[in-house]
Design goal:
By secondary structure, the protein is α/β, with parallel strands linked by helices. The protein has three domains: about 120 residues, Response regulator (Rossmann fold, 3-Layer(aba) Sandwich), CATH 3.40.50; about 170 residues, Rossmann fold (3-Layer(aba) Sandwich); about 140 residues, Helicase, Ruva Protein, domain 3. About 50% of the residues lie in helices and about 15% in strands. The protein is built from 20 helices and 16 strands. The strands form five sheets. Strands 2-1-3-4-5 form a five-stranded parallel beta sheet, sandwiched between helices. A five-stranded parallel beta sheet has the order 7-10-13-6-14. The chain has a two-stranded antiparallel sheet with strand order 8-9. Helix 3 links the parallel strand 3 and strand 4. Helix 14 runs parallel beside helix 16 and helix 18 packs across helix 20.
Length: about 450
């Protein structure tokens, strides 16, 4: 474990010895009164401060005064006090304390605090993920991912919602990497297996457990011991499998197929689905008790069509360290007009295709050939889907969506030429920019 610089403020000699013993693996300094503590905070650099509040029989909770000074110096302030009334707890947190513990269980509490501190410090170093691992400049997406990172070090389960191809798996990997967990990141796409095969994949099996089981195999739950189990498309899992998974989550034990001996695994759950969990529950496709177990924190990822500003940064990211591409103005217009039904995954596939081509400079004609197949499908939503959209967003929004789809298709077929598109569709410049402006703001 990394060595930390720690300050302990406590007037009780026995308490000082207990804290020193619990922190023996680190650089610890002791202060027996407030004046000494403040002097040390001003002259030395500490990572964590453990502060008692009542320093002497006649003291009026002077330890509280050390908290704001510590916070000002960038010290993580932890209160360990024999006085833990609701009023004191509230005052300590209001002054900037990061944690508050009652005295009496120092060994376990200190170990927990140190683990959490080191994990959180690692997570704090994740601020550059938006330019390296999870590319986005979209304020809402950055805010949602940043909030999710705050829970990376917790045991809390995380549920990631969003359309296919928006980066749910990438975000799950990032959350695991910043969790501080020593185990592996283990991923399984629940929609890729039948119920029987999914059970064998998750729980493992013994040799001869079923036809074709020629040797024993460890399940994904066991592989994820002390790590993260990522369940992609969990909404496709059968009710029967949901019940078995729920039992494994609650008890942390399970039986491999064909075995009478239980296995134990301390795994953290991150799950993802492109469907609305509440709708799945209402339709009887998802158990409410399983939902309660997997949605400790929920993050929703927006489709790429609502993150148009991310298109070129993503293109640059996909070509980093490889062949770079250049897009002319008409091609860029076409890129922004395209609805990207496959989201970031589709953009990555397109970039790989273009990078493998003969020319590095991409014009609208070349781009249109690759996008044309998806264009017609995206430009003409089916009646049921459009009706559902109208019920959800309103008739005006649905009409705007149809107009946007038709204009986007015409733009693609005209190589991104706006004037020709407006002439073909017999629309005004004002109407064109009004509709396209609305589609960008969705």
């Amino acid at each position: 474990m990394e060595k930390l610089n720690i300050l302990v403020l406590d007037d009780d000699k026995l308490a000082q010895k207990v804290m020193a013993a619990s922190l023996s693996a680190h650089n610890v300094e002791i202060a027996g009164d407030l004046k000494t503590a403040l002097k040390k905070l001003d002259s030395c650099k500490y990572d964590i401060g453990f502060f008692d509040l009542l320093l002497g029989p006649e003291d009026d909770y002077s330890g509280l005064k050390a908290i704001p000074r510590a916070v000002e110096k960038g010290v993580y302030a932890v209160v360990v006090s024999g006085s833990d009334s609701d009023e004191m707890i509230d005052r300590a947190y209001a002054l900037g304390a990061g944690d508050f513990y009652a005295k009496g269980n120092e060994e376990a509490n200190v170990a927990d605090i140190l683990r959490k501190f080191l994990r959180n410090r690692k997570a704090a170093g994740a601020r550059n993920i938006f330019t390296s691992a999870f590319i986005t400049g979209d304020p809402e997406t950055k805010a949602a991912a940043t909030e999710a990172l705050k829970y990376a070090t917790a045991e809390l389960p995380i549920l990631i919602l969003g359309p296919s191809g928006t980066g749910k798996t990438s975000l799950a990997k990032i959350l695991h990497e910043h969790s501080g967990r020593e185990g592996a990141f283990v991923s399984i796409n629940c929609s890729a297996y039948t119920e029987d095969l999914l059970e064998a994949e998750l729980f493992g099996h013994k040799k001869g457990a079923f036809t074709g089981a020629h040797e024993a195999r460890k399940g994904r739950l066991l592989e994820a011991h002390k790590g993260t189990l990522f369940l992609d498309e969990i909404g496709t899992m059968s009710q029967n499998m949901q019940m078995k998974l729920l039992k494994a989550i609650e008890e942390r034990t399970f039986y491999p197929l064909g075995s009478e001996k239980p296995e134990h695994s301390e795994f953290r759950i991150i799950s993802a689905t492109l469907e609305d969990p509440q709708a799945l529950i209402a339709q009887g496709k998802m158990r409410f008790d399983l939902f309660q177990r997997i949605h400790g924190f929920t993050i929703c990822l927006k489709p790429l069509t609502r993150r148009k500003g991310d298109i070129m940064p993503l293109v640059n990211h996909f070509t980093r360290g490889a062949r770079r591409l250049s897009f002319n103005a008409e091609a860029l217009t076409l890129m922004e007009a395209y609805p990207w039904p496959g989201n970031v995954r589709e953009l990555k596939k397109l970039v790989d295709l273009l990078s493998s081509g003969a020319g590095g400079r991409v014009d609208a004609e070349t781009l249109g050939k690759h996008l044309k197949g998806q264009a017609r499908q995206a430009a003409a939503p089916d009646g049921d889907g459009l009706y559902a959209y109208a019920l959800d967003k309103g008739l005006e929004a649905a009409l705007d969506r149809v107009a946007s789809g038709l204009i986007s298709r015409s733009l693609r077929e005209n190589g991104g030429k706006k004037t020709r598109t407006m002439a073909d569709l017999k629309i005004s410049t004002r109407f064109f920019y009004s509709v396209m402006g609305k589609s960008k703001g969705e």
